[in-house]
Every structure is written in structure tokens, then in C-alpha cells.
Amino acid sequence: MKLGALVLALLLALPASGSDVVSVERAQLFPDGDTAAVEVEGGCWLSESRCIRTASEIERLRAENESLRQQAGDVSFTVAIVALLAGLGAGFAVARLANR
């Protein structure tokens, strides 16, 4: 049981070939009867290249979000009220036509 948990900890600490998983700084085994818990601290579960790709994607999405916010602009209070009244008027007209 302890040997299996040790093997599990070593597998967690070694990078998987061809994957984006890398080693961790520290792993502890906590045997508990027939089972064992592994606590992992530090390090990154993703490879450095994957972390960089993820960070650049997040930055791209933030820039895109900011660009969309700037393009949308602010809606004035008057425009919002006019749109609300037009919607209510159209709804009322449709309801009246439906009752005929």
C-alpha cells in the first residue's frame, strides 16, 4: 500500500511524456489504513509553455473584451426610455389586434 502511494507520488512529480503536466515542488503521503491521500504543494500542473499560452489567451480575451466595451459606448437614459416606451407601445398594439 505504501509502495503504491509512493509510486503515485513519483508519477505526480515526474512530467508526463508529451503532455503539459510538470513536476511539483512538494508532495506528502498520508496513509490511512487501506487508502492514502496525497497532498501536493507548489509548482504548476501545466508545463511552462502551456502556462504561457494560457496567459496570452487570457490577455487576448481581456483586450477583446475591452475593445467591445469601448465600441458599445454608453446608452443614454433618454434612448433607454424611448426604447422601453416603443416596446410597450408595440406590445399594446399587438394585444389589441389579437383581441379583435
From TrEMBL:
<keyword id="KW-0812">Transmembrane</keyword>
<feature type="transmembrane region" description="Helical">
    <location>
        <begin position="75"/>
        <end position="98"/>
    </location>
</feature>
<feature type="signal peptide">
    <location>
        <begin position="1"/>
        <end position="18"/>
    </location>
</feature>
<keyword id="KW-1133">Transmembrane helix</keyword>
<protein>
    <recommendedName>
        <fullName>Lipoprotein</fullName>
    </recommendedName>
</protein>
<keyword id="KW-0732">Signal</keyword>
<keyword id="KW-0472">Membrane</keyword>
